[in-house]
Every structure is written in structure tokens, then in C-alpha cells.
Design a protein that fits this description.
This protein has one domain. The chain is about 70% helix and about 0% strand. The chain contains nine helices and two strands.
Length: about 200
């Protein structure tokens, strides 16, 4: 009974914190994984094992990650739009808004610039989350540092390594499937639910 009550309180608090927050979750992939049953189970487990301060801090962390990640996705897509290019990650061909085919080198250079923007923004997101941690209960800080933040640092490291690889290859005007694969993998992160880490707890 106590667990059911705590679960209901948790849902009420999360929804009441910001009634507009869930408007951000209209993207299909985010919506599906955000409401995943394992997510609720993980959060409920944290609520049962931590103080009220930690509970509120964790819900704040979820909102911060979710909103920042969706803003990051929008920002990167807007960035590509301003580059006047529609990237095709399954082939080296890329067509601009005027219908003209870009050559391989232009495609690679534009992709590298977009990846640079992605890496820098993801790095800023990591800093934002680190700042949120500072305001939390000490127990919540310790718990999240060894779960959410370790996963975030790992993701940032993988993004950085792929970006460096893409940047190096962008100077080569020869089509490379590996280049496309790296770019596609990086942009996959744009539509990965920012709270997916909770599903792994």
C-alpha cells in the first residue's frame, strides 16, 4: 500500500511541476520510451530508497535532461537547415533546397560542421546536468553521479571520438561507408530518450 501511495505521489509531483513539460514529448520515440514501465519501476525504487529531497531532485533531473535533450535535437536540426543542406545518411548524396546535388567533399565538410555543433552542445548539456546535481541532496548526488552521470560521460566520450574520426575523414573527397555510418550513429543520439539511462538501472 505504501509503495502504491508513493508511486501516485510521484506521478502527481512530476506532472504538477510543469504542466507544459509533457508537450515536449510529442516525438514518437521519446514518448514510447518515456512511458516505459521499467522507467516507472526504476524511479519508484529510487523514491523508496532515498529521502524526499532526493526524490524531488531526481524528478528535477529527469525534466532537465528531457527538456535539454529535445532542445538539442531541435537546435541541431535548425543548424542543418541553416546550412541549406538535407543530409542523407544512407549514401554520400546530399541534395540542397534548390535540388542541386552536392559533391562528396561538400557533403562531408557540412556533416563535420554539424557534428562539431552536436559535440559542443552535448558537452554543454553535460555541464548543465552537473550544475543541477550541485543543488541536490548529498545522497541523490552520489547516486546519480554513479548512474546518470557515468552514462552521460560515456556517451559524451563516444560522441567526441566519433566526431574526431568524422572531422579527419571530412578532408578526404572519397566516399566512405564508414563515414556515413559514423554520422548516422551520432545523429541517433539526438532522438535517444534522455532518461533511457533509468531503464538500465
Amino acid at each position: 500500500m505504501k509503495r502504491i501511495l508513493l508511486f501516485l505521489i510521484f506521478i502527481t509531483v512530476v506532472y504538477s511541476q510543469n504542466e507544459n513539460t509533457f508537450n515536449y514529448f510529442k516525438m514518437e520515440k521519446l514518448t514510447m520510451s518515456f512511458f516505459h514501465a521499467n522507467y516507472y519501476y526504476s524511479i519508484l525504487s529510487m523514491v523508496l530508497n532515498h529521502s524526499d529531497a532526493a526524490f524531488l531532485g531526481i524528478s528535477k533531473m529527469v525534466h532537465t535532461l528531457a527538456e535539454d535533450k529535445i532542445k538539442l535535437a531541435d537546435a541541431c536540426m535548425n543548424y542543418m537547415t541553416t546550412r541549406n543542406a538535407d543530409f542523407n545518411f544512407l549514401s554520400y548524396l546530399s541534395v540542397n533546397k534548390n535540388g542541386a546535388q552536392m559533391n562528396i567533399l561538400d557533403y562531408k565538410m557540412n556533416a563535420a560542421k554539424a557534428m562539431n555543433f552536436l559535440y559542443k552542445t552535448e558537452r554543454q548539456l553535460t555541464k548543465n546536468v552537473t550544475d543541477v546535481l550541485k543543488d541536490m541532496d548529498i545522497h541523490a548526488q552520489h547516486f546519480l553521479q554513479h548512474t546518470v552521470m557515468e552514462a552521460q560521460y560515456d556517451r559524451l566520450s563516444r560522441i567526441e571520438n566519433l566526431y574526431k574520426k568524422i572531422k579527419k575523414d571530412s578532408q578526404n573527397a572519397i566516399y566512405s561507408y564508414e563515414f556515413d555510418r559514423s554520422v548516422n550513429f551520432l545523429f541517433h543520439h539526438l532522438y535517444t530518450d534522455p532518461v533511457d539511462v533509468f531503464l538500465q538501472l
